[in-house]
Design a protein that fits this description.
By secondary structure, this protein is α+β, with helices and mostly antiparallel strands. The chain is built from 5 helices and 15 strands. Strands 1-2-10-13-12-11-9 form a 7-stranded mixed β-barrel. Strands 3-4 form a two-stranded antiparallel ribbon.
Length: 281
């Protein structure tokens, strides 16, 4: 079973639920490391000073923020005073309840499955069911790794609860930052009709498993093949497709025609072809 990222007590008024949080996203087992080619030992990061041209040991390092008048430095003791104390069983406190439709998906940073301890299953199940039937979530604040976090506890699509950490408002840029001017752009009635038709043709249920990580699959196959000492596949890079700039109306018409042709064409099973080279001894 995966290790929990952190644990705590979810507090909702007088209701307390001991929980553990497990990351939704798993780390790839085939993580590429940088090795010393001579002895195949993972190399470590060296902290070098560009001015002194020397490697800087830990005792000579200090944190700092660059400001217009120079660097403002902070000693470890000063940073410790700003950090909350690490406490076992620290609370994940509900600040308010919101409708899930209010949550901007751009605010979501990371997602965790919340798993209750044995003595918290009953209130956990109750909260999960209430949140699901009323389509609401709870805005929470909590401490993890001695840093304050903002999050939302929401019902999972199947059963149970998710905790999603949220970016603070000051960290999120708005689209207005990039000065996109759309007020004076009015699509024609024909373009709107064609665009809607194209959208309806492309509309279908989302199947997450249908989209594979091609690089990870190729990497796994290459590693297995190399471990077995067999032939190594030659991975040929595909040249990037150059988009042809068309008139908008003409582009929409061509897209609709292409979608119709794709639906009408019978499905064919194409056998993959791979080029192989002899394994070197």
């Amino acid at each position: 079973m995966a290790r929990s990222a952190f644990g705590g007590i979810l507090t909702f008024a007088f209701v307390s639920i001991p929980i553990k949080a497990y990351p939704v996203v798993s780390v790839a087992a085939e993580m590429l490391r940088t090795l010393h080619r001579v002895c195949l030992t993972p190399v470590s990061q060296a902290f070098r000073c560009k001015t002194c041209q020397v490697e800087v040991p830990t005792e000579e390092q200090v944190k700092g923020v660059e400001r217009p008048n120079g660097w403002v430095t902070m000693e470890d003791q000063e940073l410790q005073l700003m950090m909350p104390e690490a406490e076992e069983g620290r609370p994940i406190e509900v600040q308010q309840v919101i409708a899930l439709d209010e949550l901007n998906p751009l605010l979501v940073e990371r997602s965790y499955y919340l798993v209750p301890e044995k003595n918290g299953i009953r209130p956990y199940a109750l909260l999960s069911q209430v949140f699901r039937t009323t389509r609401v979530g709870a805005v929470v604040t909590f401490i993890s790794h001695r840093r304050p976090h903002l999050g939302i506890v929401r019902p999972h699509a199947g059963a149970g609860l998710l905790l999603q950490t949220l970016y603070y408002a000051e960290s999120v840029r708005t689209l207005a930052t990039y000065e996109i001017e759309l007020e004076d752009v009015q699509p024609t009635a024909q373009d709107m009709k064609l665009a809607k038709l194209l959208v309806q043709q492309q509309l279908k249920p989302f199947k997450h498993v249908a989209y594979a990580n091609e690089f990870r699959e190729a990497l796994r196959a290459f590693i297995s093949d190399k471990e077995a000492g067999g032939a190594q596949q030659v991975l040929v890079a595909r040249p990037p497709a150059m988009a042809q700039i068309l008139d908008l109306t003409e582009a929409l018409k061509r897209s609709i025609a292409q979608a119709k042709g794709r639906k009408a064409a019978p499905k064919q099973v194409v056998q993959p072809t791979t080029r192989k080279t002899k394994a070197t001894r």
